[in-house]
Amino acid sequence: MMRGIFQGTRGDHIFRAATISALVILTLFFTLIIASLLTYTDWNTFISALMSPETLFAIRLSLLTATLATLFSLLIAIPVAYAISKNNFPGKTLVDSLLDLPIVISPIALGAALLVFFNTPLGAAINNNILRFVFSVPGIVLAQFTVVSALAIRLLKSTFDGIDTRFEQVARTLGCSKLEAFFRVILPLSRNGLIASGILTWARATGEFGATVTLAGATAMKTETLPISIFLSLASANIGQATALIMILVVISLLALLIIRIITGRRYSL
Amino acid sequence: MIEIQNLSIRLNEFSLENLNLTIQGKEYFVILGPSGAGKTVFIECIAGLHKIKKGSIKIDGREITHLTPEERKIGYVPQDYVLFPFLNVRENIAFGLKKSRYRNIEIQRTVLALADLLGITHLLERDTRSLSGGEKQRVALARALAPGPKILLLDEPLSSLDNQTSRYLRLELRRMHQELGVTTIHITHNHAEAEELGDRIAIMCSGKIIQTGKPHEIFFSPDNPIVSDFTGSLNILPCNSCRQLVPGLMEVDCDGLRIVIPHDEGNMEKIAISPRDVQISPALPPGPSINRFKGIITDILYNTTTAIITIKIAGIHIMAEMPAELSREMSLTIGEEVYVILKLRRLKVLKRPAEETRGEFRWYYQEIL
Question: Does the pLDDT value for residue A49 go beyond 50?
Answer without folding.
Answer: yes
